[in-house]
Design goal:
single chain; Thiol Ester Dehydrase, Chain A; 7-stranded antiparallel sheet; 7 strands
């Protein structure tokens, strides 16, 4: 039985993760927002580092998913590989935390998307991130 702090907040739906590494991260959720999509996940044991807080690698991995809402905002429906990903680690996360990634599309050129986002837990920012993604031509 789920306790109140482990329930999925209203409005979030499970995301279908494709094969490979995306599935290794664990279940992610999305929610429509006036600015696009908010991505989220529940911190599990497999996301923790040896001292019991949210691993920096898990934060960076989740940050890289900002391409999903950014692509949607830009009207891009092709794969957009990462050129640059920068993450600032501002506060620790812990097991059971609900982490939300709020993303902004800063700019789109013909071949690139520029993004920025923040990760939030219970109203507190735990990480900031920026990314540059390559918009691939259709094959």
């Amino acid at each position: 039985m789920m306790t109140d702090n482990l329930q999925i907040p209203t409005g979030f739906s499970p995301m279908k993760l494709e094969k490979g590494f995306n599935q290794q991260f664990g279940q992610m959720y999305s929610k429509e927002d006036e600015g696009g999509l908010i991505l989220a996940f529940r911190v599990g044991d497999h996301h923790l580092n040896p001292v019991g807080t949210l691993h920096g690698g898990a934060i960076a991995t989740f940050a890289d998913f900002q391409v999903i809402p950014a692509s949607r905002l830009a009207g891009v429906d092709t794969h957009s590989p990462t050129i640059t990903l920068t993450t600032d680690y501002l506060a620790p996360g812990k097991e059971g935390d609900w982490v939300e990634l709020h993303v902004r599309l800063q700019k789109r050129t013909g071949t690139m998307l520029f993004t920025a986002g923040e990760m939030w837990v219970e109203g507190n920012i735990i990480a900031r991130t920026t990314g540059i993604y390559r918009v691939m031509a259709r094959a």
